[in-house]
Amino acid sequence: MSTKTALVCGAGGFIGSHLVRRLKQEGFWVRGVDLKFPEFSETAADDFVIGDLRDFDFCRAVIDRRFDEVYQLAADMGGAGYIFIGENDADIMHNSATINLNLLEAARRRAARRIFYSSSACMYPAHNQEDPDNPNCAEESAYPAAPDSEYGWEKLFSERLFLAYQRNHGIAVRVARYHNIFGPEGTWTGGKEKAPAALCRKIAAAPAGGAIEIWGDGQQTRSFLYIDECVEGTLRLMRSDFSGPVNIGSQEMVSINGLAEMIMGIAEKPLGINNIPGPTGVRGRNSDNRLIREKLGWAPQRSLAEGLAPTYRWIERQLLRNAA
Ligand code: NAD
Q1: Residues identified as active-site
Q2: Residue 270, class by beta-carbon neighbours within 10 Å (0-12 exposed, 13-18 middle, 19+ buried)?
Q3: Is the CB of residue 116 below 6 angstroms from any atom belonging to ligand 1?
Q4: In a 3-state reduction of DSSP, which class is residue 87?
Q5: Is the confidence at residue 1, as pLDDT, over 80?
Q6: Which of 98, 200, 307, 319 has the most other CB atoms within 10 Å of its CB?
Q7: Range of 47's domain?
């Protein structure tokens, strides 16, 4: 039997680098592509090409064969401090849309078999996420569209672009809407980190008996999915006969203050919380897993606390290493 091949775009990023590792464990020959190598570990890819996917010729060069599986994870992205402040909107829309337009066209010209696209829960209408106890993120609630960020609008456009290529050009497309993925080797400092990593860092860095700052009143709710679960859900969707779009997330919703308290419990470090003004996004968001359960028979296996424990330990180690 010949070795299966996979292309992972965004393989230098958080989810991409974990996905490459998993595909290697499964025996794939993997090519990774990114502007940069993974920050926190050696890539597991057989071939890693550094380059800019906004460049069409580069996209054509890296899709030089009919890969069995193509994963498109490359995007200009970050946490609330990056995507909700307005200053990066033009870059986010231009960069990510250009990558998706180029990659799909290059894949079409090489008669690609199957391509996965990572959309985001940020494409859901803001008005369905005003009640922190009862947000609606069912897949069919996407329209009429009203995301609260340009990042979300770009994701919605690109979802449609991928599905249009499937309809008109016969490429099998799989679209997931990820909900807040976290875990070791995710961005944890520098402005692009998201709530779980930012809170782990603040808690690890705080002096005993001190306090941490949290943006907003801390009553905003979210759910968070551990990276290994995300990779599992992604592979199951890719290899299924269901195109999506479908949520890949957890239904274990917590408030942001509650998340901080959970991490303090793991760290065995009780601290105060100062809720300060800052970018927060919608009031409430939770994955709705009915569709993925129905179509793929899949749901995440681990609790939030089980994923937070290794994530906290990893960030604590990064802090100690930086201080040394
Ligand atoms: P990430 O930022 O760690 O990875 C994205 C990678 O894309 C980065 O390594 C970046 O260098 C690369 N990239 C950006 N522009 C590029 C370009 N022009 N050419 C080549 N590479 C380029 O993000 P992630 O958390 O791993 O997310 C992966 C995908 O999943 C993204 O599309 C993101 O929007 C989506 N997503 C992630 C989450 C999450 O919680 N992490 C939630 C929803 C959706």
Answers
A1: 151
A2: exposed
A3: no
A4: coil
A5: no
A6: 200
A7: 5-181+225-248
Tell me: do 60 and 193 sit in the same domain.
no
The verdict on pTM exceeding 0.70 is yes
- Which of 178, 224, 228, 238 to mutate to test ligand 1, by most ligand atoms within 8 A of the CB atom? 178
Residue 91 lies in a domain: yes
Q: Best substitution site from 8, 14, 286 to test ligand 1's pocket, by max atoms within 8 Å of Cβ?
A: 14
Q: Does residue 110 lie within any of the structural domains?
A: yes
Helix (H) or strand (E) holding 182: strand 181-182
Q: Are residues 114 and 198 in the same domain?
A: no
176-206 tens-digit pLDDT: 999 999 999 999 999 888 899 999 999 999 9
Pairing between β-strand 211-215 and β-strand 47-50 as defined by DSSP bridges = unpaired
Over residues 108-135, the pLDDT tens digits come to 999 889 999 999 999 999 999 888 898 9
Q: Which residue has its alpha carbon closest to ligand 1 atom 41?
A: 181
User: For ligand 1, what atom is nearest to the CA of residue 98?
Assistant: 18
Is the model's pLDDT at 170 over the cut of 80? Answer: yes
Nearest of 74, 7, 3 to residue 36 by alpha carbon: 74
Distance (Å) from CA 207 to ligand 1 centroid: 33
Kindly state whether residue 322 falls inside one of the protein's structural domains. Answer: no
pLDDT value of position 290: 98
